[in-house]
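Render this sequence as a predicted structure.
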Amino acid sequence: MPTTEPPHKAEPDDATVTGTEGEGPGDQARAADPWEQMPEDALNRAGVGVDGSAETEETEENGGGGRPEGTKATGSKGGEKAPAAPSRADFMPSPLFVLVLGLAGFAGWLSWRAIELEWAAEDTAVTPLIPPLFILLGWIVSVAVHEFGHALTAYLAGDRSLRGSAYPRLNPFGYRQAFGGLVLPVAYLGLGGFGLNGPPTYVDWDAIPNRGRRVMVALAGPLASLLLSAVLALTVTLLVPAGQDSVNWAISSLAFLSFANMTSALVNLLPIPGLDGYHVLAAFRGAKWTGFVAANGLFCSIAVFAVLWLPGVRDLFDTLIYTMFEQILPNPTIPGMMFHGKLLLQFWA
């Protein structure tokens, strides 16, 4: 029985693939290879898969055939995220600041009760360790308040780059220059026994339009420290009436924190590179002065501390601050409490 061969399929010629006369556009699209129809940069085009559409680019080759004017793009070019919308949280205290503040309050309460004396056995010498922790945490809060003064005033003066950063949110652990903004002030307090903040190199001085605003930004940090020192001194004055003295660990620690904030405010007013007073002069001298302190402010700040750390200079400096407090405050015994707080901090000395 003869076998029949299956019919041979006609091989498509060039006309079949590319389309012939009489075929519609749909037939041509089905016959063509879809991968060849895809633009070379289609898979790398920003916005693919976002809301089911891809952002089209306007180029000179396609005659500007991009999205119509006023139409929002669904993605950002180059994979960059669009800037977040401003919110009130940009100036709210960070959780870390609240945690440090809470720990400082708890350490202050333990110092108030002198709890370490209760923990130790009778007739045993006790080296208090909680009061130094209270002073350290309180100083970190003070540093955050000082830098907050700079950051908030800079934002109001025109420097929008600080919004939402660690400075207006009172988070010293997130500072851009953590060494100069947090580590050095803590080292200054622990080694020298006086307060000194690092230079505000994070401020974009070029974004602040006039001299008056730049002066306000430079002075905002010392004014914040001065205000905090006054609040702490007033608290000690209310706790210890005039004519009385106290060796309570918490009260002495508060008195010393008032001393540290006062020294930070006064020293930073000096017109020396690395200090806030220098930026007051730089506001009238131009960008060259600001650029110098941006590059060398950290070293200048260390040099200022080294001079104040010299034994003769330090004793004279401490005496001047103590005398000033004696003249201002109604209780002349507060400088003695400040010195007691300094001894509590430098327990290793």
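Summary. Residues 9-22, 41-83 have pLDDT under 50 and may be disordered. The two ends are 117 Å apart (CA to CA).
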